Amino acid sequence: MLSPQSFIYAITGLLGLLASGAAARSAEHLNVQVDLSFGHDGHHVWTDDHRHVTGWTMDGDQYGHHPELLSDRVILTPPWPGNKRASAWADWPEMDEHWTVNSEFRVSGPEHASANFNIWYVSDKHLVESSSIYTVGKFDGLAIVMDQYHHGGSIRGFLNDGTISYKDHHHVDSLPFGHCTYSFRNTGQWANLELRQTEHDFEVLVDGHRCFQTKKVKVHPGHYFGLTAASSEPPDSIEVKNFIVKGPAHNAHDPSHDATDHAHHAADYYNPSHYQSASHHDPVHHDAIHGAPPPKYEHHEHHKDSRDQYDGKDWYWVDEKEHIKDHESGYYNNEKERFGDLHDRMQLLNHQMDLLYHDFSVFKDTAEDKQRELTSWLAPIHEYVSINKVMLERMEATIEELKSQVSGKEFKEHLEGLSHLVAESHATLMAGIPNSVHSMVSSNSPRFGFFVFVIVASQVMLLGSYIVYRRRQDAAPKKYL
């Protein structure tokens, strides 16, 4: 049978393992980095002069095109004319190792139009400027490309360490480390693209669904976020509603802060040096859990305030006031101190189990919501399948009816009659055509006798005329000298 002290140590070790998962979730709680974001607060994208975006630099191409700023969006490439380029780059680098990017964009245009939209995370933005993945040279960083690759629209991820010149590469389409098919043109809605760089992996999601994920990619801090767009002829219009970067709660351009100052590691939640002695521990502090206990613990006013303070946030653990320092068994002088230490530890364990129960309840509700959402998605598909089934049954019945009609009739008589009719037509043509041709030739061709008569008559007339002429000349008076 385990002693109370061994039982406490076993439970504490279990809590340490649970704390590892809790710490990972706590590290994922990131705040909006205002200096690297726009459109995040629901207000206007532009500044008061309507010409700039705070923390960002907008640039166009060499032919005078410049991105158009509206109150709620940035139009990188216009609906007309085509062959335009534009870019938007953050003025400050991202100094955190773990971050999340959310961006809503929309692409629209005529039927055969196309465009290229890129999200960059590079060390030197001047090497990219307004280039696309096909026209950029050597760059160090990450590129997420949205274009009409494979004729249906796709999202692809590219990496470069500064050694590959993409514009000189013979086959750029063979270089992505991840991709997914996504039709984003002319949807009429804003597409939501999310990039996640965590401690363990890099993930790209679109409209809440995973596009691709890899554990082999980890980009370094100190890089710049940027957007570039290029349209063809006929063009697509590319609009960006927002670009929201989330990270630890400090200024993105202040390198003195580090992400580790704002995210706890699992070891920090289970460290004997963080505990305090039970004999010097305030009972009110035992109840001041940063958690979500059931109503039976809400009689502690300080604990209730902490519950309200952390509502809606990610996983949290005990603070320093609730940590109990470990001691040897000989540290306690009497049974009262031992019982007090056991009471404090069991109470802390109970509070942490309440936290776990609360989190599992939230997970259960989320799973049920996802299930209802999935069911709502599957209902139209089921209806569509039922309609197709009915149509196939009707088509099958029509084919069977046609087959029965064809197999039940005798076509030999019809074929013999048709053959006899063709033979009669052939005989009629063979007998009538020669006679018709002979009659036409004989009736319309000139007669040879008439031709000879005309020649002889003309000769006789000519001879008669000559004779008359000679006689008149002989009968005329003559003068002799």
From TrEMBL:
Biased composition (Basic and acidic residues): 279-289, 296-308
Region (Disordered): 272-308
Nucleotidyltransferase is among the record's keywords: no
Domain L-type lectin-like: 37-248
Signal peptide: 1-23
GO molecular function, a single term: D-mannose binding
Membrane-spanning segments: 448-469
The entry's keywords: Lectin, Membrane, Signal, Transmembrane, Transmembrane helix
Location of the protein in the cell: Membrane
The protein, known as: Concanavalin A-like lectin/glucanase
Organism field: Microthyrium microscopicum
